[in-house]
Hints:
Elements: H1 2-8, E1 10-12, E2 20-31, H2 46-58, H3 63-68, H4 88-94, E3 95-97, E4 105-107, H5 109-119, E5 127-129, E6 145-153, E7 156-167, H6 171-190, E8 193-207, H7 211-219, E9 227-230, E10 245-248
Parallel strand pairs: 7-8
Antiparallel strand pairs: 1-2, 2-8, 3-4, 5-6, 6-7, 9-10
Amino acid sequence: MVDHILKNGILKNDRTGVGTYSVFGWQMRFNLEKKIPVITTKKIHLKSVLEELLWFLSGNTNVRKLQKKGVSIWNEWANSDGELGPIYGKQWRSWPDPKPNMPENSIDQISDVIKQLKYNPDSRRMIVSAWNVSQIPQMALTPCHILFQFYVANSKLSCQIYQRSADVFLGVPFNITSYAILTYMMAHQTGYKTGDLIWTGGDCHLYKNHVEQAKTQLERHPFPLPELKFERHPKNIFSYEYQDFKFINYKHHPALKGSVAI
């Protein structure tokens, strides 16, 4: 995908003012049966990937909890109190569901999907959305990965994610690994094996200030993918901790730095 964008991307202006080389529409498929997709042509900070995912699943939208874990990836968008507004975790765990003449209720999309996986695995409605149109103005950052769907076949759990805006150098490697881990967790909790992760991107772009790093990455030969093992079986999807995950044989090239476009 990166190579394709470098060769065929259209130069576009963007919200940040940095500028991007962009293509529209791309799909990748990763087999999760034995390995987990983690970029090896540069180092991925797996602690940040894991802690962010656990933070999303907790429903928290304040960076203070992440900062206590040594994770700073959301700092640039938080207000002085550390708040980000109703971003991913809020929508995943407590999507507002106002009823006439009643206090606001909410929908726990993650719990609903877990129930369907257990009791109605052929459902075509095992979907979680972060794209709450009415609350986008309140969010510090509009969701990039906006929807994901689960699918069961032959006792294997697969997941497809749609990412409307894809920063292919910094963001997408994080997102691929994060949703792969989430699929492993959902399978772990519901008794399935892992199937495939399908990543579908909309505006797939390389920021102009990431071009040289991307070229360096393309020159590197990938290493074999690592495996993911769980150290225990938590009581539910919301009870996992960083120490519960063990990545086996994650071999990688050195880190490649790139500035985040705000």
